[in-house]
Amino acid sequence: MPINPTTHNSSLTSSLSLFVEQRLGRFHLQAELTLPAKGVTGIFGTSGSGKTSLLRIIAGLDRPDTGKLQLGNQILLDTQRRQNVPAHQRRIGVVFQEARLFPHYRVRGNLTYGMPKQAPPRFDEIVELLGISHLLTRMPGTLSGGEARRVAIGRALLSDPQLLLMDEPLTGLDGARKQELLRFIALLTRQINIPVMYVSHDPEEISAIADHLVLMESGRIVASDHLNHLLQRFDLTQKLGGFDAASILEGQVIEHDTHYHLTRITLGNTHQLLLPGTEANIGSCIRVRVLARDIAIATSAVKDTSYRNQLPVTIEDTTVLPETSHSVELRLRMGRFHLRASLTRKSWDEMGLHIGKEVTALIRSVSFNPL
Ligand SMILES: Nc1ncnc2c1ncn2[C@@H]1O[C@H](COP(=O)(O)OP(=O)(O)OP(=O)(O)O)[C@@H](O)[C@H]1O
């Protein structure tokens, strides 16, 4: 059940802007950032790059040496003016790696703990959305890891936050639980109308839920943009290690072929893709990933082939990465969408390809990975 956006939050236009500087021993965090007012921002970077430190400052749990932090119209921190809104007044929900529930309160007590008295009555709505109504009378010690995490998310949401921070919320869960909760968080973040910052070093998680991506390295923000824009950047290939060279596309489900168990989606009403069957409702949006190495190129449409997707594209840019000198990396444009592909340098030369050439991208349905 979607949360009613009109009752959910008064400041739907909140966007976060910050610059902070903090020395922690030998580590130096220097970050400047403006984030979109809605959607999920994935914070990605190697261990020790400063992701948690940044989140702790935003939550008000740590104070930077210098900095300014603004959420919507409200200044939360301005070291120059000695302004600092304490953590409990920031209206920022935080979910950490561990659920950190109050052990002596039942689940219901944990959920209602931070609920403002004047908050809209969303308790039943959120409990149902999280699927935890059967847990309300249980003590935290009796919950599984995944259940405790869902309660922690519920507690954060019920505090009526303007921003939700999630720091590796799936760490330590086993594969099936992790997938279940990841799907749940992805659904939840599409239904709530507050911006979410989601820290993870797992590209799978980020690919499944982030709209925007912030890439951190040694305390600095290396890049911040729409996730698929960053994935299209050749220069970030190595820094986005683990993501594989891939593209993420979002489209609307228009048809299910129940006989062959295939799903058709439309991308902005201009292009269509045929994917492995999904359970998604007609009209709903789904996200798919396709690896660069799973896209083949032909100079014209191909007959009698098992490639179910033949997309007219233009070669927009290319490069040869030093780590894969046998192949050419391609960025392809398809209307307002972009795709990354790679093929051998030998094919590139023999097919007479060049920037600006119109070609056909061939993609097997099974190569699409619905996220
Ligand atoms: N109180 C502290 N004193 C000294 N150094 C610290 C302190 N807190 C954090 N650091 C250092 O700051 C750096 C960034 O830590 P942080 O936890 O923000 O990284 P991270 O990107 O979240 O890492 P991970 O993915 O491993 O959780 C690390 O090198 C860490 O050792």
From TrEMBL:
> Which named protein is this?
Molybdenum ABC transporter ATP-binding protein
Alphabetical keyword list: ATP-binding, Cell inner membrane, Cell membrane, Membrane, Molybdenum, Nucleotide-binding, Translocase, Transport
Ranges where the ABC transporter domain occurs: 7-243
Would the keyword Translocase turn up in this protein's UniProt record?
yes
Q: Which species is this UniProt entry from?
A: Vreelandella sedimenti
A Gene Ontology molecular function term for this protein is: molybdate ion transmembrane transporter activity
One GO location term (cellular component): membrane
Domain Mop spans what residues?
304-371
